[in-house]
Amino acid sequence: MFPESSIPELAHVIQLAVAPVFLLTALSTMLSVLINRLSRVVDRTRKLEAFILDNPARSSQPRTELFTLFRRTVLCNRAINLCTLTALLICAVIALLFISELMGFNATYAVAALFVVSMGTFIVALLSFLQEIRVASSALESSAKQILDLTNTIQKP
């Protein structure tokens, strides 16, 4: 299939491609985390929507929470899209490594550029994830404070 002299070169390309493959594993784990978070947000959103439709007079706080959940959905979706784009770019890096070896052209700059762009998209994805966590934590803190204030008011004689 390959000339005898190109087998060591192909083995070297495979060695170079191993690191991006491990990155794909990390990206798939990240995507799993993001999809689980999005699923929980969607489930909570459906419950709130049902409550609001059944109790329109008591819907001011649920509407506020619904807005927060919508914000979290946007951030999760952005992070998922960017992680998926990162994975596609890493796949392109791997494919380009092999194609350049098989076709005999120098793809150093293209591979480097794709890798840098993929890291940029991953950084933005992580920032979106961090922002989603911040929004969720702030909402939880605000809700906890409201409940504590309410229970302190009720317990006082």
Q: How would you explain this protein's 3D organization?
A:
90% of the residues lie in helices and 0% in strands. The chain has 157 residues and is mostly helical. α1 (6-54) packs antiparallel against α2 (60-103) and α2 packs antiparallel against α3. The mean pLDDT is 89.
Overall average pLDDT: 89
Number of helices: 3
Q: Helix proportion of residues, in percent? A: over 70%
Euclidean distance between termini CA atoms: 88 Å
Which radius of gyration do the C-alpha atoms yield?
A: 24 Å
What count of domains describes the coordinates?
A: 1
Largest β-sheet summary: none
Which geometry do the CA atoms define? rod-shaped
Tell me the fraction of residues in β-strands, as a range.
under 5%
DSSP summary, beta strand count: 0
> What series of H and E elements makes up the topology?
HHH
Instruction: Note poorly predicted spans.
Output: none
The helix/strand class is: mainly alpha
Question: Could you name the key traits of this structure?
Answer:
mainly alpha, 90% helix, 157 residues
Task: Describe the structure concisely.
With 157 residues, the protein is mainly alpha-helical. The protein has helices spanning 6-54, 60-103, 108-155.
